[in-house]
Write a structure and sequence with these properties.
This protein has about 130 residues and is of the alpha+beta class. The protein has one domain. It is built from three helices and six strands. Strand 2 and strand 3 form a beta hairpin. The longest helix has 13 residues.
Length: about 130
């Protein structure tokens, strides 16, 4: 659930404002992985698989990323009564983070990250968003 704190200040299209803070159900585009001995949990979302209008809306924000203050929250969809109400499982606040202008990693850094992954015995896919209920 992304919520842009300074939406109006940035002069973004009012068409997008109705979606600010609204949850999105991630299905076939998501996976959840955990590290060896549950050292970490990683959630991956393939935005490239989103519908065209959604991708274009995200891309339209590109020039404003360096100015945004965004709160992100993640929950797991509840189905049964004992799984409700849903609660925030993870949240963070991104302040002026430009995901489009991130620096490229050097070959040395990539090699180091690969060694670290091998040391952790790689990730184990816990569940894809399409499996389960």
């Amino acid at each position: 659930m992304p919520w842009m704190q300074n939406f109006r200040e940035l002069g973004l299209p009012t068409l997008l404002e109705g979606y600010n803070g609204k949850p999105a159900l991630i299905k076939a585009t998501g996976t959840v992985c955990r590290g060896k001995d549950n050292a970490f949990l990683e959630m991956c979302i393939n935005v490239h698989s989103f519908p065209v209008l959604t991708r274009k809306s995200i891309h339209s924000l590109r020039g404003k990323m360096k100015q945004m203050v965004v709160h992100l929250g993640t929950t797991i969809e509840g189905h049964a009564d004992d799984e409700l109400p849903e609660r925030i499982a993870f949240c963070c606040r991104l302040i002026r983070v430009d995901g489009f202008e991130s620096p490229l990693l050097s070959a040395e850094t990539i090699s180091w990250l690969q060694k670290q992954a091998k040391h952790l015995n790689n990730n184990v896919v816990v569940e894809t968003a399409t499996s389960g209920k």
